[in-house]
């Protein structure tokens, strides 16, 4: 009778351990899926960053082109004269007139600071 009781006990022990085994397998699968999702999320974020940096590069390229064009204009005589006049320089014989608005709110237009020729 001892030999018949042992297989039953062994079978009962295995049946009791089956839910525990399935729980462990499920836990391992869950951890594995979580470990796979993290690199995929990192990859997705890197793609977003790459797209954003590409847009910034394009915007900076446009700005560089605009600045190069302005630099070329400033290399001309007309560009140098315009830049000098913006800084307040006048030609010999010209007088610089400054108009001040007595508006107490401080919202006056300060573009009236242009030289006037005679």
What keywords describe this structure?
mainly alpha; single chain; 118 residues
- In quaternary terms, these chains amount to single chain
**SSE order in H/E notation?**
HH
Q: State the end-to-end CA separation.
A: 130 Å
Q: Which radius of gyration do the C-alpha atoms yield?
A: 40 Å
How many beta strands in the DSSP annotation?
0
Global morphology: rod-shaped
What is the percentage of strand-forming residues?
Answer: under 5%
Mean pLDDT: 82
Helix content: over 70%
Structural class assignment: mainly alpha
Count of alpha and pi helical runs = 2
Low-confidence spans: pLDDT under 50, at least 5 residues? none
Reported for the largest beta sheet, the result is: none
Task: Summarize the structure in words.
By secondary structure, the chain is an all-alpha fold. It has helices at residues 2-74, 77-86. It has a domain at 7-88. The protein has 2 helices and no strands.
């Amino acid at each position: 009778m001892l030999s018949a009781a042992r297989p039953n006990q062994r079978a009962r022990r295995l049946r009791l351990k089956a839910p525990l085994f399935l729980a462990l397998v499920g836990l391992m699968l869950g951890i594995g899926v979580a470990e796979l999702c993290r690199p995929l999320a990192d990859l997705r974020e890197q793609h977003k960053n790459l797209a954003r940096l590409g847009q910034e590069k394009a915007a900076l390229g446009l700005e560089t082109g605009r600045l190069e064009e302005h630099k070329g204009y400033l290399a001309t005589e007309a560009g140098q004269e315009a830049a000098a006049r913006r800084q307040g320089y006048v030609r010999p014989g010209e007088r610089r007139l400054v108009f001040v608005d007595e508006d107490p709110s401080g919202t006056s237009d300060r573009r009236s600071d242009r030289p006037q020729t005679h």
